[in-house]
């Protein structure tokens, strides 16, 4: 029974992105380890762990909300991504 843990900075993925990631990783494990057997899917555990930005380091620097916003889009006070302005 495989267990997959994905660690990321809180606020990088929205709910729909998390769902897509969970499904696609599961599909990959079924394809490779389960040899394509659809019944193997029920044995696959996938978990996304989110940590606060201050708990991470990128190149020795703690990513600030501004760094994350510049790369992934702005976050609101709850850590949710705000819609990017369309130009």
Automatic annotation (TrEMBL):
<comment type="similarity">
    <text>Belongs to the 4-oxalocrotonate tautomerase family.</text>
</comment>
<feature type="domain" description="4-oxalocrotonate tautomerase-like">
    <location>
        <begin position="2"/>
        <end position="60"/>
    </location>
</feature>
<dbReference type="InterPro" id="IPR014347">
    <property type="entry name" value="Tautomerase/MIF_sf"/>
</dbReference>
<dbReference type="Pfam" id="PF01361">
    <property type="entry name" value="Tautomerase"/>
</dbReference>
<dbReference type="InterPro" id="IPR004370">
    <property type="entry name" value="4-OT-like_dom"/>
</dbReference>
<keyword id="KW-0413">Isomerase</keyword>
<protein>
    <submittedName>
        <fullName>Tautomerase family protein</fullName>
    </submittedName>
</protein>
């Amino acid at each position: 029974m495989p267990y997959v843990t994905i660690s990321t900075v809180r606020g990088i993925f929205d709910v729909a992105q998390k769902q897509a990631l969970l499904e696609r990783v599961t599909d990959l494990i079924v394809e490779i380890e389960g040899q394509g057997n659809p019944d193997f899917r029920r044995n696959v555990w996938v978990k996304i762990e989110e940590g606060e930005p201050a708990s991470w380091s990128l190149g020795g620097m703690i990513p600030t909300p501004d760094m994350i916003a510049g790369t992934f889009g702005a976050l609101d006070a709850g850590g949710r991504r705000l819609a990017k302005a369309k130009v």
